[in-house]
Amino acid sequence: MTQQIPSTEPELARVRNFRDVGGLPTADGRRVRHGVLFRSGHLAHATEEDAAFLASLGLHTIFDFRNSADQKLEGPDVELPGVRNVNLPLSDPADGAGFWKMVRDGEIEQLREVLGDGKGADRMIVSYRTIITERTAEHTRVLRSLAEDSVPALMHCAAGKDRAGLSIAVTLLALGVEREAIVADYLESNAKHRRYKVYRSGSSSAGYSPEVMELLSPLFEARAEYLAAAFETIEETWGGVEAYLEQGLGVTPEIRERLRGRLLD
User: Where would you tag: which of 48, 77, 119, 185 has the fewest CB atoms within 10 A of its CB?
Assistant: First the structure.
């Protein structure tokens, strides 16, 4: 039996961006059930108290969308008793390992070259579009798993903003959640206490300069334009959400109905 989650958000010491997705409205007047779908940043640094809270949620499955480079950097998720851990990388480690080393080293000239003049935001938009078009098998597995038995579930990546944000958005689309509510939930990752913390390498000075922070801001912000690019890609590639779900992801009306039965009030 799923624990009733209190309405106040827990203060987790070493897990960023945690929240219950429950309460979001669907177009037909229903709401996402509380206590069945959660999202967060990675769980690798969870304290004992954090782990105890997560264990109290009665989770069936944790979906970890980090790649091998992320896991090498941050470590594996804390293990919770009786919880199935599913790793479904939504990005290629080769795309990011060298880049994130450059970020942590604070290489200003290189950062200007790859992130300046709007390139940082462009990088994020391309990433969102690519995940939608190239990671259909992963999103299919998530939705089918949720429809079958994998709830309560928690979805996370490193920051809980982009890869987890997209996976949550795809799930909410399948549930028929109102588009404005999906965007609003996505943008909650911008709250200061939710933001992913990037630490400089030991060979560098303690903090980032204002210029570096400005260059990095497109990477650490949840921007409506990023999610809009994902939605636009669905329209451009499949012609709409219904075709995307059925043709792109193989999620039939029967699967969607089971999904709605598990996740909606």
Answer: 48
**What dihedral do alpha carbons 64, 65, 66, 68 form, nearest 10°?**
90
Is pLDDT at 3 greater than 90 in this prediction?
no
What is the DSSP annotation of 207-242? S--HHHHHHHHHHHS--HHHHHHHHHHHHHHHSSHH
How many other β-carbons are positioned within 10 Å of the β-carbon of residue 256? 18
Q: What are phi and psi of 210, to 5 degrees?
A: -55, -35
CATH number at residue 128: 3.90.190.10
pLDDT by residue (tens digit) across 59-108?
999 999 999 988 988 899 999 999 999 999 998 776 666 776 777 777 78
Question: Within a domain: residue 5?
Answer: no
Q: What DSSP designation does 160 have?
A: S
Determine the longest span between alpha carbons in the chain, in angstroms: 56
* Residue 6 counted as domain residue: no
Residues 199-241 pLDDT 10s? 555 544 445 678 888 888 898 899 999 999 999 999 999 999 9
Number of domains in the chain: 1
The residue segments making up the domain with residue 29 are 19-263
Q: Is residue 1 part of a domain?
A: no
